[in-house]
Design brief:
Blueprint lengths: L2 H24 L3 H5 L2 H16 L4 H8 L4 H11 L4 H23 L10 H6 L3 H25 L9 H23 L8 H8 L7 H4 L8 H24 L3 H7 L18
Helix pairs in contact: 1-3, 1-4, 3-5, 8-9, 9-10, 9-12
């Protein structure tokens, strides 16, 4: 028997075996059948693979000798160590990241309140002040989490882009600078980052800043600040490269404003 006929015979035998397995499941209670749901699905995949896979004649013949080739193949597959669970975990994380990214894009960024708490109280703007303060605290927590998750004891690989996406460059700069201004004499913070922090304006009292000062190790925090500043510079350059909507509209020709096309010379016959 040639390879094509052997493969067809093998497929028919395994399809019949699967049909008997399915019939057995249908005779079980729903709860019992669920215990075999994974096995049924994998056996279906094995059949699907065999449908498009042409085995050499000796291999097909050897499998035909087995009284239950489908069950044998499934048992071997079940005992294999695959990256199946790793793939599932990766899919879960990817989906979560996609949803988080969508939420970041739609969530409004609360602006920094540019006055003291006393000013807010006197001018009836206490709600805006408290909302800004609460967001500062949340930003601090996010930075500390990013540092804690990104530091391996030797180097820092923090998700600066994620923190900036959620809280915006102005808020992140404010919280970082407030912290560095509070430890301006700490030698573990680079002089460049200290100089940068001094340029960021503070709108409230020093005692109020203590509500959201970052408590991470100053040396690791300085690395985070450096990485964040680089990310903000890259974002700024990207924004500058992208033309504004007004510029895009100005670059487009207005219908009717184009000069008339020159008539083509008539062909001389």
């Amino acid at each position: 028997m040639d390879a094509e006929k052997l493969n067809q015979a093998l497929y028919d035998k395994m399809a019949a075996e699967q049909e008997r397995f399915k019939h057995g499941l249908l005779g079980m209670t729903a709860e019992e059948a669920l215990n075999h749901a994974y096995e049924y699905a994998m056996r279906e995949d094995i059949l699907m693979s065999l449908e498009v896979q042409d085995l050499p004649a000796p291999q097909a013949a050897a499998l035909l000798e087995s009284p239950c080739p489908l069950a044998d193949i499934y048992k071997d597959f079940r005992d294999m160590e695959t990256g199946h669970m790793d793939n599932i975990r990766e899919c879960i994380e990817d989906r979560a990241e996609s949803l988080m990214e969508a939420q970041r894009e739609t969530a409004p960024i609360i602006p920094i309140y540019p006055h003291t708490g006393e000013y807010a109280r006197e001018h009836g703007e206490l709600d805006a002040f408290l909302a800004s303060l609460e967001t500062n605290v949340a930003c601090r927590d996010a930075i500390e989490t990013a540092i804690g998750e990104g530091f391996d004891g030797m180097s820092l690989h923090a998700d600066t882009k994620g923190v900036l996406a959620v809280f915006g460059a102005e808020r992140v700069s404010h919280v970082l600078a407030a912290t560095l201004q509070g430890i301006r004499n700490d030698p573990r913070v680079s002089s460049g980052n200290q100089a940068w922090a001094a340029t960021v304006p503070m709108f409230d009292t020093v005692s109020r800043h203590r509500d959201y000062l970052i408590t991470s190790h100053p040396g690791v925090l300085s690395i985070f600040v450096t990485q964040t500043r680089k990310e903000m510079d890259a974002m700024q350059k990207q924004t500058e490269k992208k033309p504004s909507i007004k510029a895009q509209l100005a670059a487009k020709p207005v219908p009717g404003d184009q000069p008339a096309a020159k008539p083509k010379d008539r062909e001389v016959r």
